[in-house]
């Protein structure tokens, strides 16, 4: 397989950018992710690939709950703030205030829409673990257009 074409072809996949988060009530983790898709209407499900050696993976595995915070097209800076490991200071995650969602996962105050999932299953086949999550709680605070990877100049894939 031609490695350059593999990289180019895989980078043609379209993505949004989201802050995925989890909490056990004491420990919190949140990271910017893009490997996310809806995967079922009934029940409503998504699938998301999470780095196997990340704190986020550990907490989702422990709690079986995660939130997807949907970034708007004006929130590229928030995505950047969550590329780095999670800090929890002054009740903020990486400098951003949040509340616990209905299922306990962190929901950032600035986010216009979110959903929370309970983990229904997982597949460990590569360097990322694929979680299948059932959408069990949703919230909206306003209107927005989602932040799309293609507008950022960033890549995660290839
Ligand atoms: C553009 C971009 C997209 C990313 N997408 C994902 C992703 O889909 N899944 C993932 O696990 N990490 C993804 N990451 C990495 C995480 O943002 C980052 O490594 C993580 O938040 C650090 O968390 P940790 O301290 O728990 O390792 C992405 C990074 C970048 C720069």
In a nutshell, what does this entry contain?
This protein has 3 helices and 11 strands; from the N terminus they run αββββαβαββββββ. It has 158 residues and is mostly beta strands.
Report on this structure:
This protein is globular. The strands form two sheets. Strands 2-1-5-10-11-4-3 form a seven-stranded antiparallel β-sheet. Strand 1 (18-23) and strand 2 form a beta hairpin. The chain is built from three helices and eleven strands. With 158 residues, it is mainly β. The protein has helices at 3-10, 55-63, 76-81, and strands at 18-23, 28-33, 36-40, 45-51, 65-70, 88-89, 92-93, 96-100, 106-108, 113-124, 128-140. It has one domain (15-147): Pnp Oxidase, Chain A, CATH 2.30.110. 15% of the residues lie in helices and 42% in strands. The mean pLDDT is 97. The structure holds flavin mononucleotide (FMN). Residues 29, 31-35, 49-51, 54-56, 82-83, 85, 128, 154, 156 line the site of flavin mononucleotide. The site of flavin mononucleotide has 18 residues, from strand 2, strand 4 and helix 2.
């Amino acid at each position: 397989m031609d490695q350059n074409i593999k990289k180019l072809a895989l980078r043609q996949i379209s993505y949004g950018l989201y802050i995925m988060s989890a909490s056990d009530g004491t420990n919190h983790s949140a990271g910017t992710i893009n490997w996310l898709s809806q995967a079922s209407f009934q029940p409503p499900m998504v699938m998301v690939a999470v780095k196997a050696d990340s704190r986020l993976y550990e907490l989702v595995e422990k709690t079986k709950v995660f939130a997807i915070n949907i970034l708007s097209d004006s929130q590229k800076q928030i995505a950047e703030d969550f590329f780095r490991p999670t800090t929890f200071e002054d009740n903020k995650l990486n400098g951003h205030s949040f509340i616990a969602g209905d299922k306990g996962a962190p929901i950032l105050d600035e986010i216009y829409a979110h959903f929370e999932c309970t983990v229904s299953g997982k597949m460990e086949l590569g360097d990322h673990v694929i979680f299948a999550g059932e959408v069990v709680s949703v919230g909206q605070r306003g209107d927005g257009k989602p932040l799309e990877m293609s507008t950022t100049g960033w890549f995660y894939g290839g």
